[in-house]
């Protein structure tokens, strides 16, 4: 079965990579790519944001919460390749590879090679082959920070429990610079590690603590030094205050649709994925009941089963609680980090329970047989599900169709000879900004746009239907129309 799982996993992840390289642009990703483009072209760490009318480029745009740990490498690739999107997508895919590596290392540390494999395969329990305009499934090729932050967090946990405090601290510090809302998660990881690695038998190891803290603050210190050199003393503090105000605003409004948020999170995993999770939870309960007899679970240094689990579960549930209880953002994308952190641990728990059962085989043969049966069934569900995911990603063409229609819309915009792109409130077509190189019409010295642009994500959120053609009634001459985008003249 091990070889079959490896083959299915390789096919599934190869399909995910191929799918992502030519996937159409998502709104927030495109917004981030305006920063990537400007940085690559020598205009600094700045967006084209239409949220600041009269500003040509917005340096250190507070609305960009995906950080330099992802955007700076993407800018390097943009500069080298001249903005080739499939090449830029390799950057978040490398971050996804780091996530899978961290899952393997943690799973292998907990329960050996089988635990590592199941930990790597478990993220495929997320939906993979669904039409995705708002990041509600496994789309690791998008230039958004959640996957990178989760991967760096898991890598940091592994390094800390393996006795590498500076590397562990550096990884969780980079997670914060991949996605700003991981600050709380990083602080939790470090605090739990400092206490859990020594308590109750030893005093705090202050040398290791200082090394971890140094690694954690280093990425932020470097980026803030860069901000200071770019803005100068007179612009630095207002920029930091602006970003801090944006982060505070994410938790200072009405929190709505909690039930719908949970429902959307449930839908992020297909039925077979929940069967796998249920099986793993049953095994975890039985494992807890038989924990006293376990002798052969690998442990080393400051690492232990309890500490490792706490270092993953605490930030995962903290991020989930923050999204459900205080965040004004209702998008399921805000809840995906909970699943991305949790699923590798779920996978590793299956062979862990089998080990516990083996340890009690001589005294409780019935439990032993039952646990092994559930573990085998749970692993089989995962194997079948991974095979289903592999088939799905290799046959799904939604992303490629989206990309083709977006490119056609961009060509129509360029042919229209407009010198800017229209802005309507928050809607500013960043996808078309990336594909055409045009700036929003509210930028300093920009002329008014001579076309209107509507997109499928705008239709999805405004009209509940992911078809930009619903806006054709608001158009004059239609220059291009498809599901993904409509380009037209004013009526």
Give a written overview of the molecule.
- By secondary structure, the chain is mainly α.
- It has 2 domains: 2-23 and 89-395, no CATH class; 398-488, no CATH class.
- It contains 17 helices and 5 strands.
- It has helices spanning 2-21, 27-40, 68-81, 85-88, 90-121, 146-161, 165-176, 183-196, 206-249, 258-267, 271-289, 305-325, 336-359, 365-395, 398-415, 430-436, 456-463, and strands spanning 46-47, 58-59, 452-455, 478-481, 485-488.
- The strands form 2 sheets. Strands 3-5-4 form a 3-stranded antiparallel sheet. A two-stranded antiparallel sheet has the order 1-2.
- It is globular.
Number of domains: 2
**Tally of alpha and pi helices:** 17
Shape annotation: globular
What level of helicity do the residues show? 55-70%
Instruction: Strand order, main sheet: write it out.
Output: 3-5-4
Mean pLDDT: 91
